[in-house]
Amino acid sequence: MNIGEIAKRAGVSRSTVSYALSGKRSVSEETRRRIQQVIDELGYRPNASARALANGRTSTIGLVFPPAGNHYTGMQLDFIGSVVEAAAAYDYDVLLSPSGVDSDRSFQRLLGERRVDGAILMEIRLQDDRVDHLGEENFPAVCIGRTARSDRDWWVGLDHTALAAACVNHLADLGHRRIALVNRPEHLLRAGYESAHRGLDGFTKAAAERGLTVRTYCCGDDAPSGQECLERILHEDPDTTALVTLNEAALGGLYRGLAVAGRHVPRDFSLTGVVAGRWAETVTPQLTAADVPAEELGRLAVELLVERLDHPDAVPRHHLLAPPISLRASTGPAPAPAVNR
Amino acid sequence: MNIGEIAKRAGVSRSTVSYALSGKRSVSEETRRRIQQVIDELGYRPNASARALANGRTSTIGLVFPPAGNHYTGMQLDFIGSVVEAAAAYDYDVLLSPSGVDSDRSFQRLLGERRVDGAILMEIRLQDDRVDHLGEENFPAVCIGRTARSDRDWWVGLDHTALAAACVNHLADLGHRRIALVNRPEHLLRAGYESAHRGLDGFTKAAAERGLTVRTYCCGDDAPSGQECLERILHEDPDTTALVTLNEAALGGLYRGLAVAGRHVPRDFSLTGVVAGRWAETVTPQLTAADVPAEELGRLAVELLVERLDHPDAVPRHHLLAPPISLRASTGPAPAPAVNR
DNA sequence: CGCGTTCTTCGAACCGGTTCGACATCTCTG
DNA sequence: CAGAGATGTCGAACCGGTTCGAAGAACGCG
C-alpha cells in the first residue's frame, strides 16, 4: 500500500496523488475525490521515512535528557510531558535521547544520522560542550537552561540567581540569621550545572548582603540523601533555623530529617526553595517555594525551536523566567534563640 | 556528505562503501582502510531516513503513554526512563506518543506512517481498543499491563490483585478491622484501567475473606485530592484505622490529611499500598508498600519487544510480577478501639 | 594451458515518497 | 481566430541508502 498502488487504483500517476495530498499544485475536484476515496478505502498513510528522505525533514525533535541510570526528578518528568504535548500541537514527534553514559554516541545518532530536525537540551552546564558543538554546526537547538556565554544560543531558563536570592530574602525578612543551602549533588555542581551554580551564587550573594551566616551543602537526588544532609546541617550548626533547597528530590528526606530531630516546621525551622508547584504540595506542611513553571518552560522551548526551524536565520531568542515565591506553610518567623545550646 | 561523496573520495563505488560498513560482503582490507579513513576525516554518518526506507526498519520503538495534560505519576516517569535506557542498549531510539486528546491521530502517525518498528503501551485498560487494534494487525507491541483477554498479547505486568490482597492481609494480620482503599481517579476506573480494577478486586475479595469492613474511594492523581479523600474517609467512618493506596500521586496528600486530623502514623493509623520504592521513601514515616519495580518492568517490556521484533512468529510471552511488601514504617498494630466515638 | 573457484568490485534496481519541466486542454482576450 | 495564460496531468529525476546479479582478477589444480 504505497503511493504507486493508490495511483494505479485511482488511474492517475504517482505525482498526481502526491499533489492531491499536499495541495502544492492544483488537482481537479473530480480527480481529487477519486484519489481520496481510494485512500480512505485502503487506509493509506504515506511512509514517514520516504517522506523524510525526500524533503529533508523528519518532523521529529530530539529531547536530550540527563544521564539515565540515576534518578529523575519530578521536574524533569514535567518537562518531558510538556515538551511532548507542545510538540504534538505543532505536528512534531519527540525522540528521547539519554545523553548518558555514552553521551557522544546517542548524540551522534540523533544529529549525525539526521533523525531529528532539531533538539531540546535539558540540564545545561555553564560550560557545555554539547551546546558549543551544536552552536558551531548551527544545528537548531534550544536549551532548557543557559550556558555562561548564552548570547548566541537559543534558550529558555529560570533566573536561578534571583530565585535563590528571593528565597534568602524571604527568610531574612522573617528574621532568620543562620541558614543553609541544600544544592544538587556534588558531582553535578562540579560538572558545572547551571542551576546548581547560579543558585549557589544567588544564595551566597544575597546572604552576604543581608549579613546572614550560611552553610552550603550538596545533596544526592533522593530522599535518603536529603535526610542525611539535614542531619549534617543540624550537626554542624545546631542553631540553623532555616534552609533553602534547590534539590527537589531530596525534599521528602529533608522533612523526615526535621521530624526525626524533633524540629517542627515552621515553628522551629523554616524551609523554602526552588521546586515545581505540584511537588511542593506533596509535603506537609506544603512548601513555600519559587514554583518552577516546568510546564511553561517546556512549552516555550518547543515554541522557540519551531520558530528556529521555520526561520533558520532568525536571531537567537530566549526567555528568562523568574516566578514569584508562592507562600505556603513551611516558613515562619525565626524562633527565639535557644539559651541552652 | 552522503555515501556517494565517500565513494568518490575513496575511489570506489557506493555499494562498496555500503558493504564495507555493513560487512555483509567481504571487502579487501586495503579498500576498507581507505574507506574508513575518508569516513573518519569527514565524520560521515549514514542518513537514518534513507536507511530506514531501504531496509524497512526504523530502529525506533514507540512509547505510547497516557493522556497528556493531566498529571504524571512518579511511576510513569520511572517507566519512561527505564524503557529509554533499555532500548538504547539494543540500539533502539524511543519515540514518545501521547495517546491523549486525539488518541487515534498520534496512533496513526506512529504506526500508519511506519515511524516505529514496534510499540510499548502504558496504562492498559481491561478492554483496550488500542491493544485489540494492534492485535488484529499483528503489529509488534508489548503492553505494560494486561487486558482482560491477555492470552494472545505480549505484556509485562504486575499482579495487582495479589498485591492489593497482600496489603489487606498485612493490615488484617496487624489487627485492623476497618480499612479503606484509595484508588486511582474515578474516570480511569470507569474507563476500565486494569490496575485500578484488579487492585479493587483483590482488595475487595481479600477483605471479604478476612471479614473486614471496607470502604473504597477514588481519588485524583495529586496531593490536594489525596488530602480531600482522606478527610472523606475519616468523615464517613471515623473508626477507620488503615488504608491501602493504589494511588501514588495522592500519597503526600493522604499523609497531610492524617496530620491535619491529628492521627499519628503508624500509632493511630496505618498506611500501605502499591507504590514505587523511590516514592515510598519520600514520605515520613516511610511507606510500607508493595514496591512497583518500574525499572524492571520497563526493561522487561523492551526485552520482549526486541524478541518479538527479531522473531515475528514467536508465540506471545509475558511476565507477571508480584513483588513482596517492603516493610517500612507506616504500618503498625491496630489501635485499641476508642470507647468514646 | 584451460577451467572452475573464490575474492573484489561495480552498475543497476529498488525502497516510497516529492518536485521539476513539459505537454495537452481549456479559457479568455484583442 | 490566433495567441497568451491558466489548469490539470504525466514522466523522469532525485533524496541516500541497500542489495542483487554479474563481471573481472587472482588463484589453484589437473
From TrEMBL, chains A, B:
Residues 5-45 form the HTH cro/C1-type domain. This is LacI family transcriptional regulator. SUPFAM superfamilies: lambda repressor-like DNA-binding domains, Periplasmic binding protein-like I. Residues 1-55 form the HTH lacI-type domain. The gene is lacI. It holds the Pfam family LacI. InterPro entries: Cro/C1-type_HTH (IPR001387), HTH_LacI (IPR000843), LacI/GalR-like_sensor (IPR046335), Lambda_DNA-bd_dom_sf (IPR010982), Peripla_BP_I (IPR028082). It comes from Streptomyces lacrimifluminis. The keyword Transcription applies. The keyword Transcription applies.
